[in-house]
Amino acid sequence: MTPEPFAHANTSPSRSVPAERHRMASRQEIDRIEQDVLYRRSVERYLLARQYAHGTVLDCACGSGYGSYLMAKNPDVGHVHGYDRDPDVIEPARLHLGSERVSFWQADLEEVDRPADLLVCLETIEHLDDPMAVSRLADRCGVHEIVVSFPTKKTTHYNPHHRWDLVEQDVRDILSGFHVHHSHHLFQDTRMMWLARGRGRAESPPTRWGPPFS
Q: Count of alpha carbons within 13 Å of 82, Cβ hemisphere only?
């Protein structure tokens, strides 16, 4: 008689170890949970970026478009334009998430020239052969503010799509025409920055717990 899988395992949880540590899971289930966590973190990055969204927003490398959709839910947003060079994600995004306030376009970063108020560039700059393309895009489209995020840990040795391991000063140098208003460390491995030309929006007040932005 063939024994049941894990029949030899002690399934009685130890008092000193959480019960979930004793739960058996397949490789496929563990991998699925990992991918779900990464997806939820991506959604959370867009939820954080949404607080800065207003007017016309460019979402560069928008992928399947969920981030563009989420940002358009901010009532301060007039329209979100999502751009990605992959036609396989743009067409489904148009079908399922496009609306009178959200549009999707197939284009390379260097081809985008739409005037906008805010540029959102999440987990993208580390993929670019030339990260200065983000600065050129901002100048070309006349954006006043940028929200950018990127990994803060080394990733190029295991992620073949990442061209650069960046630190905050690298991004400050790339976007030297902008002033950093906020910089957040997320999930212990991601940096999110909100930058604006000069002092940014005139209606943005200084915080009560710190000096005015300079």
A: 30
Q: Are 62 and 84 in contact (CB under 8 A)?
A: yes
The two tokens of residue 119 are: 């540029």
Cα–Cα distance between 171 and 195 in angstroms, integer? 10
Tell me which residue of 116, 120, 121, 122 sits closest to 143, measured CA to CA: 116
- Alpha-carbon gap, residue 125 to 158, rounded angstroms: 17
Q: 60 CB contacts (<8 Å, ≥6 apart)?
A: 83, 109, 112, 119, 120, 121, 124, 134, 137
Q: Which two tokens stand for residue 72?
A: 């358009």
Give the dihedral sign, CA 139/190/205/76.
positive
Query: How much is the pLDDT for 214?
Result: 39
User: pLDDT higher for 15 or 191?
Assistant: 191
Structure tokens at 38: 């990464």
Q: For residue 182, what are the β-bridge partners?
A: 194
Mean pLDDT of 22-26: 79
151 pLDDT band, cuts 50/70/90, is very high
